[in-house]
Specification:
The protein is an alpha/beta fold. It is built from 13 helices and 47 strands. The relative contact order is 0.06.
Amino acid sequence: MKYRNLTNEEIDILEKQMCTCDEWSTVFVTNDFLTRTIINSHFSGVIKIGAQTKKIKLFGGIKKQAGIYNSTIHNCGIGNNCYINYIKNYVSNYNIGDNVIINNVQLIANEGENKFGNGEKIAVLDESGGREIMMYDQLSAQLAYIVTLYRHRINVISIIEKLINEYSEKKKNNRGTIGNNTSITNTGEIKNTYIGEHVKIEGARLIENGSIISNNFAPVRIGNNVILKNFIIQSGSSISEGVILSKCYVGQGCELGKNYSADNSVFFANCQGFHGEACSIFAGPFTVTHHKSTLLIAGMYSFLNAGSGSNQSNHMYKLGPIHQGIVERGSKTTSDSYLLWPAKIGPFTLVMGRHYKNSDTSDMPFSYLIEGNDKSWLVPAINLRSVGTIRDAMKWPRRDKRVDPNKLDRINFNLLSPYTIQKMVNAIENLERLKRVSGETSNEFIYNNTSITASSLKKGIELYTIGIDKFLGNSVITRIKDINFKNINELRTQLQPSSEIGKGEWVDISGLIAPKNEIAKILCGIEDGSVKQLKQIEDRIKEIHQAYYSIEWNWSAGLLEKWLNKKIEEITLKDLIRLVHRWKKCVVDLDQMLYNDAKKEFQLSSMIGFGADGDAEIQMADFEMVRGKFETNNFVMEIKSHIQRKSELGDDIIKRIKNCEDYSD
């Protein structure tokens, strides 16, 4: 915009309107400046004021003329059509965008050069330090994971921190920012803070030293009595109702509210925190805690559902709060559960009761970890047949609240993947080894400070085998269903891996399911200088995520050979038919288990409390009005439909294989 000095006539009018200024010559306005839009205000330093020509609509339908009223402004640039009113102290050293509302605010000021939260270190997992994440306003869950857990790669961490420092230096400014279309009302103090576009701040108490990254696609909301210190908040997130955050990073689409408090913690995409408390946690995508008395401390989580009163302990009163724990993706903690760190809990595990031993169940996915007689009892694989597990896997993609086109975190929602299947393979080997070592007649088997009953061990092997068969059948059918094949050679060609990428161990990098070797390549690139920028690191992570389905088969092909005990060149048509038959049986068997598990929610015992003051008939009627009928439940109907669809698909594949020119009974 083009600016000019005020005329003497305009200065006279402003002074009559109770406006004062240390030096009117340092106040600049646009050509369409209206003197009636500045009343009872004081100016100092260099001031630039845009055109204030429009009416501004406030909450409740009230309209006010854009302008500056009852305020003290120092060293600021103010955009077009802003409404600034009743600043109790002052606004100092800020660039304010267009269409901004600042009404009834205590203080907005920037002092000195600031990085607005960029470069601040967050002490996750180990409260005493050693795993600090240096945050910046484009940080992803994956880069944070590497910085947190790959501390043994000293050069990698050093280079990444150097790059973040360089990025942070570029963010340094002696003026704060309030972006276009932002509204700040009934708020206390805002200090040394970058505020993006379309932010709504209403009733916050204190916001200091941070960045709020917001845009028109995904606005950020900051609500009543919120206190934020040393922070970065990403697009689409909501922080409200008395939340207190200190040294925290909040990713995209998160919700924190109802007096939640957190210190030295990171929350990535779609996390939710209400009522409880977090200290030094790494909350990967979809970490959820909704209850009072729930403390998450010194742990790494993702896709977690923490029950009421869930607690962990990182302090043995020896060398301080130095212990940490990892709860892998998809796990749940029940009400009043307790875990003594250090511990590592496998994916999709249900933790029930209190556990005082340092357990490692990371190679026993889909299990129950239950307290009984002062022991930690492990029930392997039992969660594979839980309707809750499948429901979670279905709901997570639907609950992805990120609407920003620039999604920072790379999230794979797959329940069965090379990551979980390799753990199932390991689990079967571990369980078979326990049988051999302890003997077939043993009633209790000890595994990494947990106990397993003989019946649970046997059932675990059975369920893990079903899970592997289902995944392998899914992979083979997906590989061949859309191609025209005439003979076994064409099928063998299609079943060959396309490259070496994906072979070997896979890892879950806080939502990203990826080959360990590909992550290692990124780290080597950082060390040798071929990866020189933070964006290059994030781009490589994005490439791995986008290539998931093309490289998943490279791993699955190896599992196929191991499972059939044959090279792909040796596989026959009958082998494939047997594989599809096994897959069909696994799908139907697992779906039947889910069906039976869902049916428990409609049994008589679940109707207790329904049909108040009535007989059994009224109880049933009340229950059906609230819950519906079992046969018409959406999830139940989906199970039935899934069985039918997959059975038809399997039959079609078998028919096509039998129609091959070299097939013979």
